Structures are given as structure tokens and as C-alpha cells.
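This entry is passed on directly below:
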Amino acid sequence: MAIIRKKELERLTKEELEKKLKELEMEKMKLKAKKGQPTGKTKQIKEIKKVIARIHAQLAKR
């Protein structure tokens, strides 16, 4: 999963943001399910949470 910057999010439409939000939530759930395994997924989960927060902030502005 690539990190999505604020400027990239500003260019997306509301529908695209909502779609991206659903995709990230699913990815976060998959990583949390694998968290118990020794794969070091905690950093990825943290990054996904940050992007989700950025998307929520963009949706609140609109």
C-alpha cells in the first residue's frame, strides 16, 4: 500500500474518497487478522490509520 499524500486526496472526488476509504478499511482488517503472526505488520497498520484519518478530514471539508 502506497502512502497517499494530502494533495493527492484533494484531487479526488467524494465518491473516489469513499471508495478508497472502504479499500483501506478492508486492508486494515486483513492486516489486523495477521497481526498475531510474526510478520511485523504493525507499521503498515499505523500508516493505513493515518491515511484513513486524512480521508475523513477531506470528507469533512466537503
Remarks:
- The radius of gyration is 12 Å.
- Residues 6-61 form one domain.
- The chain has one domain: 6-61.
- The helical segments are 6-11, 14-34, 42-61.
